[in-house]
Amino acid sequence: MADAIKISELTTLQITPTTNLADDFFVVNEVTANASEAVTKKLQIGEYLNWILGQDLTFSQQIDFDKIKVKEGEFDDITTDEIYIGDQIIIGPNATVIGLDIADIISDSVDGLGAIVADLEDSVAVLQDSVAVLQDSVSAMQAELIGLRDSVSTLQDSIVSLKTDKLDDAPSDGEMYVRKDGAWIVLTNNLSYDS
To answer: Considering the entire predicted model, what is its pTM?
Structure first.
């Protein structure tokens, strides 16, 4: 008999995504009817995996997959009560879809779109009302601007009139002057009033 080796003394196989284990073996102890005896045997990994994949598997708990990719003709049937798809389902152009009620999906989509259209119509009506209010406000501001422009024009006319009618300064010769009959005259001590 060969020298005994403990499993703890075996080196660990480092598995990478490119490791091909199909021709490798598991070491198993097959327990016979007499539980005190075990026969050590080898089990080819590739054959074991094929055996697992050939079974009708039933899972009682949730199983999460990041990605399922099935080659054509290799996976014909999945039976489940519920599948949650987080992102997308891609159905090939030649695929046959059975049991999917497109009419219900379209009906639900149309109903959903109808609600969206109704909301959009309401929003358009609100926007139209807002535009009408803004147009009224613009018209009122335009009328106010016209009134302000007229007021500015009147003020400009008044300024021109004041410039035209303004008095020239009295002569600067040290004398005191007063206005009489539209002209400057020297103020004398003898003032006379015409009655």
So the answer is: 0.31
